[in-house]
Amino acid sequence: MEYTLKTNGKFTYLEEGEGRPIIILHGLMGGLSNFDAVTQHFSSNGYKVIIPELPVYSAPLLKTGVKNFATYLQEFITQQGYKDVILLGNSMGGHVGLYHTKHYPENTAGLVITGSSGLYENAMGESYPKRGDYEYIKKKAEAVFYDPTIATKEIVDEVYDTVNDRNKLIKTLAIAKSAIRHNMAKDLPDMKTPTCIIWGKQDSVTPPEVAIDFEKLLPDSELFWIDKCGHAAMMEQPEAFNDILLAWLKKREL
């Protein structure tokens, strides 16, 4: 799908549909296109779908991390005048959603996390990708999915370019360290926001036990599994993901 991005001050974002806002938070190496199926489905079912571009590689190094991205998100929500939002985050985006919900619970009607960091993540396996080694990076990108063919050449090329860009590499490492530093295990039991946890059974980046821990620690949460699915459920099993989420939203009257 081709969408037209909007700009308001320092914020660039996609906005489709009308209704309660669903704000989607992309992962570290995840583009807005990863959520095409979600955007199309929910913007056609009574929701306003918004995907802000997080300043992953544009913010100063000292402001590159989970905490500052959550602050950026709050500034965006305030500037746009959104109320009672639903946050939906994948991978790092889930972590940003969790951190934001902890600090601004009055703004968040519901939270959806899938393959989220915040407790543990096996970001790149045992080692960070070797710069310049395309085949190595291709295998790492494929390992994110249950079906390796989901890792198209376009996706692999984007990861390869990121790893071989010194500025992006430094910021990627800074974000990874930030995710570890902002572990949320102690915060989750105090977070009362209704939370939908959707997880791929074959997620190797944030393994299934991470989802189980999220459900145990978050007081008002429900966990849903998608089989034959890796780290990015909304990409790999979009119909199942959308069906689970829409049913949960209706059940919760959100």
Describe the structure.
The protein has 254 residues and is α/β, with parallel strands linked by helices. The chain has one domain: 3-Layer(aba) Sandwich (Rossmann fold), CATH 3.40.50. The protein has helices at residues 36-43, 66-80, 92-103, 134-143, 153-163, 166-181, 208-217, 233-236, 238-251; strands at 6-8, 11-16, 20-25, 47-52, 85-90, 108-114, 123-126, 195-200, 221-226. Helix 3 (92-103) links the parallel strand 5 and strand 6. Helix 1 (36-43) crosses helix 9 (238-251), helix 2 (66-80) crosses helix 3 (92-103) and helix 4 crosses helix 5. It is globular. Residues 123-127 have low confidence and may be disordered.
Straight-line N-to-C gap: 26 Å
- What CATH calls the topology is Rossmann fold
Helix- and strand-based class? alpha/beta
CATH class: Alpha Beta
Let me know the number of strands.
9
| Percent helix | 25-40%
Structurally, the number of domains stands at: 1
Tell me the β content. 15-25%
Radius of gyration: 17 Å
| Poorly predicted ranges | 123-127
Short synopsis of the structure:
It contains 9 helices and 9 strands. The protein is of the alpha/beta class and 254 residues long.
Itemize the secondary structure elements and their pairings:
Elements: E1 6-8, E2 11-16, E3 20-25, H1 36-43, E4 47-52, H2 66-80, E5 85-90, H3 92-103, E6 108-114, E7 123-126, H4 134-143, H5 153-163, H6 166-181, E8 195-200, H7 208-217, E9 221-226, H8 233-236, H9 238-251
Parallel strand pairs: 3-4, 3-5, 5-6, 6-8, 8-9
Antiparallel strand pairs: 1-2, 2-4
Helix pairs in contact: 1-9, 2-3, 4-5
